[in-house]
Structures are given as C-alpha cells and as structure tokens.
Amino acid sequence: MQESQFFTWEALSAMGGASLLTFFIVQYTKSLIDRFWQIPTDIFAVMVAFLVLLAAQFATGSSVADWRVYALTFANSFLVAAAAAQMQQKSISPPTRKGKRNDTDTH
Length: 107
Fold this sequence. Notes:
mainly alpha
C-alpha cells in the first residue's frame, strides 16, 4: 500500500473516507448534472455514495456476484450520504461559540 495516497480503498470503504469523497463529488458535479436531469441533491448523494462504496468493496476483494455486497452497500450509502450532507451544512454554516462577542461589539 502506498502511504503517499490521500484516499485508499480501505479508507473509502469506511464512513469518513466515503462521505468525504461523496461530498466532493456531489459538490463538483451537481450543477453539471442539473443541466441534464433534475435530481434532488439528497438522492444524487445516495447514488454517488453507492458507487463510491461499491468501487471500494470490489477493489478490496468483494465478489461482484455476491448479492449481499449490493444490499449492504445500498443501506450504507444512505448513511454516507447523510454524513456528506452534514459536511456540506457545516461548510455553509460553521458552528459558532455561544456567547462569543463580535469584534464590532462596543459593550
């Protein structure tokens, strides 16, 4: 295994890696996809997550003929898409500390 790679197949089969890549793919391709098909972002994210997780499963040795891979990947794709949506929400509205004063406050 090369340690110089940012993503590995093992990392992509885990929640953190799969959700991060799903987040990036959705962010960079959603406007292009919207030109041709009007797919809700949540559904598009589930489809992307499914493909990312399937690729990771097959790359790490899972059998293409095993139906259980598809069923479990389908279920996990919803979790990964939800985590990617949370990343997107935090990038738009980062959390702030309660009670933190602005630099412009004169009180």
